[in-house]
């Protein structure tokens, strides 16, 4: 059964979108495989392995985590709701992201406009939650594979995702889990160089991503610009 996710994805003509797709080796909008930038001392097959899961999800920041549609709701209804929601939103500009560690993986994180980003993210979580089917036992078990605080467990049960509200951290994942050491340091340095872009990163709309069967690549199915 298809899963849907509300993500931020940079505009398709932006330097950030192209750089993110190149880093992950895949364009989630066109389904095109791309050569990853070479990292000195790291073989391409190892580089691919260390970005495999991040690539499967596509270059994005999660606003509402993947969900299945609740009974009685359709993809067409979700599209209409997204159009209406996005028509009322204003862009969030000047994110100025840089490459940071988030636990044991690398991600792009913004240094500006955190309050506006957080408000947008929770609006997506809250206003589209009626489209979300209840979690299956398998979904719940998967989310609980890693230790959760009592608050994160409560958020998981309420919203189907433990990292929302005050636990939310806007980020664009660049790698899978990395062990500390020289290899991780090399990838960190390469990512910093690759994403040293003299270009603005603005949130000007939402992207609907879909996963049509478990384990399949997520695809960017539709973009919904703000204010239109």
**Beta-strand segment tally:** 9
If you compute it from the alpha carbons, what radius of gyration comes out, rounded to the nearest whole angstrom?
17 Å
Uncertain regions spanning at least 5 consecutive residues: none
Distance between the termini: 31 Å
Coarse morphology? globular
Order of helices and strands: EHEEHHEHEEHHHEHEE
According to CATH, what is the class?
Answer: Alpha Beta
- Please summarize the sheet with the most strands: 4 strands, antiparallel
Give the proportion of residues in helices: 25-40%
Total DSSP helices? 8
Q: Strand fraction band?
A: 15-25%
CATH superfamily caption:
Cyclic phosphodiesterase
Quote the CATH topology: Cyclic Phosphodiesterase, Chain: A
Helix/strand structural class: alpha+beta
Count of discrete structural domains = 1
CATH architectural grouping: Alpha-Beta Complex
Largest sheet strand order: 4-1-8-9
Average pLDDT over all residues: 95
Considering the chains and any ligands shown, give keywords for the structure.
8 helices; Cyclic Phosphodiesterase, Chain: A; 3-stranded antiparallel beta sheet; alpha+beta; single chain; 35% helix
Topology (elements, then pairings):
Layout: E1 3-8, H1 15-24, E2 26-27, E3 32-33, H2 44-50, H3 52-57, E4 61-67, H4 75-87, E5 97-102, E6 105-110, H5 114-127, H6 137-143, H7 150-159, E7 172-173, H8 182-194, E8 205-211, E9 219-225
Antiparallel strand pairs: 1-4, 1-8, 2-3, 5-6, 6-7, 8-9
